[in-house]
């Protein structure tokens, strides 16, 4: 693509070919997941591009036999707790770093950047021991607290971008009109930063929704699994029930995709600086 | 997307409270000064407490643990200091040098190279497309990005599953492999090739979208001038696009490097990746297996520290890059 000359022939073939290649590479795994989930003979599927039939039996199976409803609920609870706490804490912190000049401000920002780089595997061992000592293993609260911490650095970076784009004059005008700081926060700052807050919340939710390592390590009672871990039970060492694996994978993936498509226009400024990698 | 971190934000004006009262009441001014001093810290406090308690403190603990033999006795953990034994064992083991580190490093660089290259190509493609196709492609990219690492990994495993997997069957029917006997996951070459495919599929959208945002900031006149000078597309890319949005490339490369060094889920979930096949260990998996499967928390912690040190070194580069773009950014 980079070398495409201005010759019409090259771009007439090259561009559509590139588009088709891109669509195949990005969407084929998604298609394969969903169509396997719907295929009644999923595990015998082989190289058939079309499913042998359409049925929802694997979905019924994961709910009836696999307890997947509970796992989805657990994920939703943990996700919501993470959203609320992370967005609130991050908003305060973002206002502090975007609006005020103070000593050690740069140091705080660097610290936030650095903790974002810490590998989860380094944290999982001590946190496991810590959580065990406080009897917080197998607890949705314990897991939520970890996810709040995991999503905070990115949320602060993101919101900081949003807060910084709000013109200072808007706030000053509110001050001149005699508004107090809390009042200014509620009626001026919060509405303006709302899109950023929505984006941050969704990213915090996705962090919690997708996370595997901590949920897998901390949650050992099967009724406390999150959805991402719940799939693991259908995944056998020697024989895997691909229908249920793909049905539960679809249930975990599709809500996230819908979120992404809805919010991608609102993500705007700061998001490019962070990540949503699992 | 104009003012990303990458392209530089408008300079934040130094905050000033409302103008001091004209009378110059000393007490009021002092009070205001105190508020100015403490307010940012009050706002930061909750976040800092959470980050310190759940990220920094465990990091210190893992350092301490790496110097100990840790055993679970009577329901509680007991650590005995052993100095740098775990590190010297780790750093002299051939497993680390022959398997774990090469797997980690080669895999990370392959993923970064392919992710950035593919992401850039797709960004250039998006830049050339009309509104409708750009929209369609963007949504497809978002789908790949939104696919959770866990479910994405299951799909790739399913595609490459010995015997039944689609790729295995197609490769078998073309005569490339014998699908009855070939298991892609038992050897580290194919194992990591599949993991790379998975990580690139999940990771290139971020690069594509960020680079595309960067491309939009390049003035059209530059390309027109380049064309007038007779530069071909390749020359225009190297001499105009790359230098103009170099900071974007730097940041996506460094971020990808950091992410790809700590890939865990995608490796752990692949058949054999959970520790049953030593050949395919990477640093993260090795650390995890030592701690949780072998109950050797000390060695696990030492490996975790090693990984952290590697990542911190990369992070320093990242931060320096950010700073070089102008301190007012931070």
TrEMBL record, chain A:
Source taxon at top rank: Bacteria
Major subcellular site: membrane
Record-annotated ABC transmembrane type-1 domain positions: 72-263
Transmembrane feature ranges: 12-34, 71-96, 108-129, 141-163, 184-209, 241-263
Single GO BP term: transmembrane transport
Membrane-related topology note: Multi-pass membrane protein
Any single Gene Ontology cellular-component annotation: plasma membrane
Subcellular location: Cell membrane
Gene3D superfamilies referenced in this protein's UniProt entry, alphabetically: MetI-like
Keywords: Cell membrane, Membrane, Transmembrane, Transmembrane helix, Transport
Residues in coiled coil: none
Xref: PANTHER family: INNER MEMBRANE ABC TRANSPORTER PERMEASE PROTEIN YCJP (PTHR32243:SF18), MALTOSE TRANSPORT SYSTEM PERMEASE-RELATED (PTHR32243)
Family statement drawn from the similarity comment of this UniProt entry: Belongs to the binding-protein-dependent transport system permease family.
Protein name per its UniProtKB record: Sugar ABC transporter permease
Source organism of the structure: Streptomyces venezuelae
TrEMBL record, chain B:
GO cellular component terms given for this protein: plasma membrane
Subcellular location, principal: membrane
Coiled coil stretches, renumbered: none
Entry keywords, A to Z: Cell membrane, Membrane, Transmembrane, Transmembrane helix, Transport
UniProt xrefs under CDD domains: TM_PBP2
GO BP field: transmembrane transport
Family annotation (InterPro entries): MetI-like (IPR000515), MetI-like_sf (IPR035906), UgpAE/MalFG_permease (IPR050809)
Transmembrane segments annotated in the record for this chain: 41-60, 105-126, 138-159, 191-216, 237-259, 297-319
Pro residues bias: start-end ranges: 12-21
Domain (ABC transmembrane type-1): residue spans on this chain: 101-318
Region (Disordered): 1-26
Topology versus the membrane: Multi-pass membrane protein
PROSITE patterns: ABC_TM1
Compartment annotation: Cell membrane
Pfam family, one: BPD_transp_1
Protein family: Belongs to the binding-protein-dependent transport system permease family.
Official protein name in the record: Sugar ABC transporter permease
Organism, as annotated: Streptomyces venezuelae
């Amino acid at each position: 693509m980079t070398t495409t000359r201005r010759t019409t022939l090259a771009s007439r073939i090259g561009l559509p070919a590139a588009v088709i290649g891109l669509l195949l590479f990005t969407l084929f795994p998604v298609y394969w997941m969903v169509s396997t989930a719907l295929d009644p003979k999923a595990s015998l599927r082989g190289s058939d591009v079309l499913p042998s039939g359409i049925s929802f039996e694997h979905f019924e199976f994961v709910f009836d036999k696999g307890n997947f409803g509970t796992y989805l609920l657990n994920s939703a609870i943990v996700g919501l707790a993470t959203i609320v706490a992370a967005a609130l804490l991050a908003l305060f912190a973002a206002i502090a770093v975007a609006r005020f000049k103070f000593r050690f401000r740069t140091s705080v920002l660097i610290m936030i950047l650095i903790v974002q780089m810490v590998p989860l595997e380094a944290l999982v061992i001590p946190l496991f021991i810590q959580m065990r000592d406080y009897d917080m293993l197998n607890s949705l609260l314990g897991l939520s607290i970890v996810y709040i911490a995991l999503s905070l650095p990115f949320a602060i970076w993101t919101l900081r971008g949003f807060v910084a784009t709000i013109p200072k004059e808007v706030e000053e005008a509110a001050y001149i009109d005699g508004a107090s700081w809390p009042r200014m926060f509620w009626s001026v700052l919060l509405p303006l930063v709302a899109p950023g807050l929505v984006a941050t919340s969704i990213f915090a939710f996705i962090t919690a929704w997708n996370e595997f390592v901590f949920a897998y390590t901390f949650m050992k009672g099967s009724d406390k699994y999150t959805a991402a871990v719940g799939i693991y039970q259908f995944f056998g060492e020697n024989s895997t029930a691909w229908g249920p694996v793909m049905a539960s994978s679809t249930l975990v993936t599709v809500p996230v995709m819908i979120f992404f498509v809805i919010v991608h226009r609102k993500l705007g400024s700061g998001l490019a600086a962070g990540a949503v990698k699992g | 997307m104009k003012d990303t971190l990458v392209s530089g934000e408008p300079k934040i004006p130094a905050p000033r409270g409302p103008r001091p009262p004209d009378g110059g009441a000393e007490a009021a001014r002092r009070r205001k000064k105190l508020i100015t001093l403490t307010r940012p810290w009050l706002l930061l406090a909750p976040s800092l407490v959470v980050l310190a308690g759940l990220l920094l403190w465990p990091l210190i603990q893992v350092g301490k643990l790496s110097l100990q033999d840790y055993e679970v006795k009577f329901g509680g953990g007991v650590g005995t200091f052993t100095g740098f034994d775990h590190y010297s064992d780790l750093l002299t083991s051939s497993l680390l040098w022959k398997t774990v580190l090469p797997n980690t490093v080669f895999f990370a660089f392959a993923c970064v190279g392919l992710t950035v290259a593919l992401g850039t190509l797709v960004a250039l493609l998006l830049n050339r497309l009309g509104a409708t196709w750009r929209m369609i492609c963007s949504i497809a990219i978002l789908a790949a990005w939104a696919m959770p690492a866990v479910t994405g990994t299951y799909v790739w495993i399913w595609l490459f599953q010995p015997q039944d997997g689609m790729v295995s069957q197609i490769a078998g029917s073309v005569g490339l492999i014998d699908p009855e006997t070939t298991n892609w996951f038992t050897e580290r070459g194919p194992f990591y090739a599949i993991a790379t495919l998975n990580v690139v599929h999940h990771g290139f959208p971020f690069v594509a979208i960020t680079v595309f945002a960067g491309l939009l900031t390049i003035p059209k006149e530059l390309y027109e001038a380049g064309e007038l000078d007779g530069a071909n597309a390749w020359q225009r890319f190297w001499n105009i696009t790359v230098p103009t949005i170099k900071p974007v490339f730097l940041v996506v490369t460094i971020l990808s490097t950091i992410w790809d060094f700590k890939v865990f889920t995608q490796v752990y979930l692949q058949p054999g990746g959970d520790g049953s096949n030593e050949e395919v260990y990477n640093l993260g998996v090795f650390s995890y297996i030592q701690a949780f499967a072998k109950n050797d928390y000390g060695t696990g912690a030492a490996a975790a520290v090693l990984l952290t040190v590697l990542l911190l070194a990369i992070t320093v580069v990242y931060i320096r890059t950010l700073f070089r773009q102008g301190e007012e950014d931070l």
